[in-house]
Each structure stands twice: as C-alpha cells, then as structure tokens.
Specification:
Helix content: 25-40%
Structural class: alpha+beta
Strand order of the largest sheet: 1-2-3-4-5
C-alpha cells in the first residue's frame, strides 16, 4: 500500500489494486481504520475500525475531511 498522507504518527494509505468504492486505510501499529471517500460530495465516512478509540477516530475523520477539502479545491 502506498502512503498518501501522514496525520501525526498515522499513515493514510491506498491500495491501487482495490476496485471498490474510493477509500483510504489509516494505519499505525496494530490499529487500522477504513474510511470511504465522498469527495467532493461529502465528508469521509468510517467503514470499519480495529483498535482505535472513538476519540482517535473523530480526530482522524476531521483531519481527513480537512485534507480532502484542500485536495478537492486544487
């Protein structure tokens, strides 16, 4: 998987061989979350999560939404 963004100590990665709905994986250590992307129609949506707290997921979602706004406005 290719890293496309870093949020502090987290890696946001994509797998170019996956053909499902546009999404990213957020990984660190043994934790992983998958967010569906709805750019530019809406914010990212949590699809699944393993090991992250609800507080961490809220922070990650906000950071992804901010990065998408920047990317979509280019």
């Amino acid at each position: 998987m290719r890293t496309v963004l870093r949020i502090d100590y987290l890696r946001v990665v994509i797998n170019p061989n996956e053909h499902r709905l546009a999404h990213v994986h957020v990984v660190v250590g043994g934790c992983e979350a998958v967010f569906n992307l709805h750019c530019p129609d809406g914010p990212p949506e949590l699809r699944e999560s393993y090991g992250f707290s609800r507080q961490e997921l809220t922070r990650i979602k906000a950071a992804l939404a901010a990065a998408l706004v920047t990317a979509c406005n280019r």
